[in-house]
Amino acid sequence: MLITNKNKNKIQEIIKKISMDAEVSLEERIFVENNAKHCSSIWTWLKKARRYRRYGKKIHQESINGFIQSLALDGLESENHFDAKNEDIADWFSGSPDWVRRS
According to a count of CB atoms within 10 Å of the terminal CB, is the N or C end of the chain lower? Predict the structure, then answer.
């Protein structure tokens, strides 16, 4: 999905507000979420912002958790861990963006 520079800048401003735990309107949130569903870059930016908001600078970049955070990989939050005993792998991926489900 191609986005215009205007929309890209708007998305980055909203994501910056999210990372700083600033107030974000519902319309802004919907705008970013809709774009993140179709663009892996925006999804990654959003994921990093949420993680930064949650952990801030508490995670040292030199640590494995800092490395995971910088790559926007799942693994830091226990709610993102797959539990093979209680979850179906297809259901676990059901909330993923469209571009993940297509892969």
Answer: C
